[in-house]
């Protein structure tokens, strides 16, 4: 089906509208928000421990002391990846298969080291663990913006008349911009000019505060849909980096 056909299909448009409007009432939306919130502290812990472990292990490997440090670091990454699979399945609904670790099939220290170094599941787990910090920072920023903007606008009728409170669009000075389109025509120039001027809008009445609250509903709706979309992207990334095999595994 072409994109134009999909956009002009009433049932498809209705499904999209229902999905957007139902975001505040879906458990999966708040599960995605919980996943993003947890990603910030977990991402910091993963990144610090992994980078420190790898740095010490590589720098001390010439003295053989770094070999067990590297092994312990990679073992910790594997354990973390197992927990992250469960977290992604539970909170994001990700369909991730359990990998078959090559190191469990090898015998001997040399064979196990070679298996760990050539196992794509280990490298995928390492990539995901290191990327968790980026996910956590982005998720924390997104949740902070959504909660602060949505909550402040929704609660405007409760504090708009409080002493010292300023509600609305407060600019230090008016913004004035002139937009012009000029077309040369023989010896003349024909053009159209528009002047756009933005000034502060401060809410001082209950109807204005209620209007701000309506903007808050819209902002919350948009924000929760963005959170839901971020959860979907995190699920796909978890499936790519942590997935192995083709058969889906469920924890239910």
Summarize the structure.
One of its GO terms (molecular function) is kinase activity. The protein has 252 residues and is mainly alpha-helical.
Description of the structure:
With 252 residues, the protein is mostly helical. The chain has one domain (9-165, 220-242). The protein has helices at residues 3-7, 10-21, 27-59, 66-92, 109-118, 120-154, 156-159, 206-242, and strands spanning 168-169, 175-185, 188-198, 201-202. A two-stranded antiparallel sheet has the order 1-4. A two-stranded antiparallel sheet has the order 2-3. A hairpin with a 2-residue loop joins strand 2 (175-185) and strand 3 (188-198). The chain is elongated and about 80 Å long. Mean pLDDT is 80; it is low at 245-252.
SS element count, helices: 8
Which stretches are low in confidence, meaning pLDDT under 50 for 5 or more residues running? Answer: 245-252
The strand line-up of the biggest sheet is: 1-4
Largest sheet: 2 strands, antiparallel
Oligomer status: single chain
Overall number of strands = 4
Percent in helix: 55-70%
Order of helices and strands: HHHHHHHEEEEH
Radius of gyration: 27 Å
Domain Putative sensor: 35-238
Protein name: Histidine kinase
Transmembrane segments: 32-54, 60-82, 133-160, 209-233
Keywords: Kinase, Membrane, Transferase, Transmembrane, Transmembrane helix
